[in-house]
Amino acid sequence: MMIASMNQWIWPFCRQFVAAEMEGLNHLGISMAPISTENAIKFIADPEHGAADIFIGTVRNHNLGKSVEGVSYDVYEELTLHTFRELCDEARENWGNTLKIFIEHFQGRLDIGGISILIAVSSPHRDESFKACRFIIEEIKHRAPIWKQEHYTDGDSEWVQGHALCSHGPVTYEGCTKDHVGH
């Protein structure tokens, strides 16, 4: 069973849209507030798990030879959360039903170094959490309706392709293909 809620933050105009499972295996969120690594680590903690893998995507200061000063992210929240849920299900099909998964993506403008996405996965052994985390980030880049606009130091800005709706090819990455099943 899924619960969706709009949490109002102390800061004006900052909000977070979160979908969480009653069983406590997934935390799926779109946030306009800074993403917390502490919250991710606390969420995936499990005394039966001996491994955790964390991917933190941040805004870098350059792309394709251009100096970047920041990035704006636009997110179709409902469909993105649905995609996150599908990816959690697929990860569990491939790497085990006990995975605990935290996925949160930022919406809005970030400066250099800002956290745009955080994915954390815990599992009984490291192989499963490494592979599931890699699978999730690669699939999000191709399947989630999240748009990225880079802002350059010369005052220009540009929307960057980043998912399948922009007609990218099939996802391939070593060791973690979509139909890979391994433990």
Describe this structure in words.
The chain is α+β, with helices and mostly antiparallel strands. The chain has one domain: Aldehyde Oxidoreductase, domain 3. It has three helices and eleven strands. It has helices at 37-44, 77-95, 126-143, and strands spanning 2-8, 15-21, 26-31, 51-58, 62-63, 66-75, 100-106, 108-111, 115-123, 146-152, 157-160. The strands form two sheets. Strands 1-2-3-7-9-4 form a six-stranded mixed beta sheet, sandwiched between helices. Strands 5, 6, 8, 10 and 11 form a five-stranded antiparallel beta sheet that branches. Strand 2 (15-21) and strand 3 form a beta hairpin. Helix 2 runs antiparallel to helix 3. The model is unreliable at 1-14, 164-169 and 178-183 (pLDDT under 50).
Instruction: Kindly provide the radius of gyration, computed on alpha-carbon positions and rounded to a whole number of angstroms.
Output: 16 Å
Quaternary organisation of the protein chains: single chain
CATH superfamily: Molybdopterin biosynthesis MoaE subunit
Number of domains: 1
Let me know the number of strands. 11
- Strand percentage lies at 35-45%
Find the CATH topology. Answer: Aldehyde Oxidoreductase, domain 3
* CATH C-level: Alpha Beta
Give the termini distance in whole angstroms.
27 Å
- Main sheet record: 6 strands, mixed
